[in-house]
Design a protein that fits this description.
heterodimer; A: alpha+beta; three-stranded antiparallel beta sheet; about 15% strand; B: about 100 residues; mainly alpha; Arc Repressor Mutant, subunit A; about 50% helix
């Protein structure tokens, strides 16, 4: 069974996967970051999400190896720090990835660094595209003399450039949305981190 | 100035003590559990983070062949020195506890 979802917030991702797994299925794979594949099972599974920055190959091997020694199955995650690391296991009482506050806070910090960095990057780009948004068709289509062309010549040039023209407009819509989503994830992580820091 | 990571956190300290002999991940967790009388139960992510940090500072090293699935670690010569420093520091602490007036003698 496939479920289509896209998460920027790993806390929500983890919660959602575990809720799904409480209903008699288990996560087997995540493709393209939005196709969550579940299979039916009578057994219990618990999933935990981590985030790691770029790891070289040998570090990545260590990362995988140590978790597997503890019974975790690697469901998703590469070594380039682009997406979260998703780990599943059958619950046996040691069902957390982090056993002290410091290491859990470090996980939150790593993720906040990533979302914060991306948010700034997207924000700069969003401001850029909004300020310089080509409102006039002549600024979206860049083919010289396009609007003076006639008949088949016009349509050929127009259709040829259309995908590029759309790409010039799309960022103006997409990037502010991305900034908002990233900032929400950042805010939630920061809240979770503060709660942890206040404990004890 | 004190070397980095000193004084060692409880988790790091126990891991370094465990790694005076070569051990792989799960065995580190078991030995640390034993040494702490069941008080410190290290999870996989926490262990990875601590090993990575200690390795970065050259206090421990990966000694298994890269082809091996199980990764084996051990303290380095520098790591031994760090443990020696911690040993001295903690002995001083104990003498502070045991002295009545709180002086160092």
């Amino acid at each position: 069974m496939n479920k289509y979802k896209f998460f920027i917030d790993p806390l929500k991702e983890e919660q959602w996967i575990n809720e799904m797994q409480n209903e008699g299925c288990r996560l087997t794979d995540i493709s393209l970051d939005f196709i969550y594949k579940f299979e039916e099972t009578a057994e219990d599974y618990v999933t935990r999400v981590d985030f790691q920055e770029y790891m070289n190959e040998s570090k990545f091997e260590e990362y995988i190896s140590i978790h597997e020694e503890f019974g975790w199955e690697h469901i998703r995650g590469g070594r380039f720090g682009a997406m979260t690391q998703v780990w599943s296991k059958k619950p046996d009482g040691n069902d957390e990835l982090f056993s002290d506050r410091e290491s859990k806070i470090n996980y939150y910090k790593r993720y906040m660094k990533m979302t914060g960095g991306l948010a700034v990057l997207f924000l700069v780009y969003a401001i850029y595209v909004m300020l310089f948004l080509p409102y006039k068709p002549g600024m979206i289509f860049l083919t010289p003399g396009l609007w003076d062309m006639q008949g088949i010549d016009f349509w050929r040039a127009f259709l040829f450039e259309l995908p590029f023209a759309l790409m010039r407009v799309l960022p103006a819509i997409l990037f502010p949305v991305m900034v908002a989503l990233l900032l929400i994830a950042y805010y939630r992580m920061n809240k979770a981190k503060k709660e942890l820091e206040l404990e004890n | 100035m004190r070397p980095k990571l000193l004084p060692l956190s409880e988790t790091m300290h126990l891991i370094m003590l465990a790694l005076r002999k070569p051990l792989h991940g799960y065995a580190i967790m078991q030995l640390v559990g034993e040494m702490s009388g069941g008080q410190v139960n290290i999870a996989a992510g926490t262990l990875y983070g601590a090993l990575d940090n200690l390795k970065k500072h050259n206090y421990i090293e990966l000694i298994s062949d890269p082809a091996e699935r199980k990764k084996v670690y051990q303290v380095t010569a520098l790591g031994e020195e760090i443990l020696e420093l911690e040993n001295t520091r903690l002995k001083k602490f104990i003498s502070l506890y045991e002295s009545e007036d709180g002086s160092n003698e």
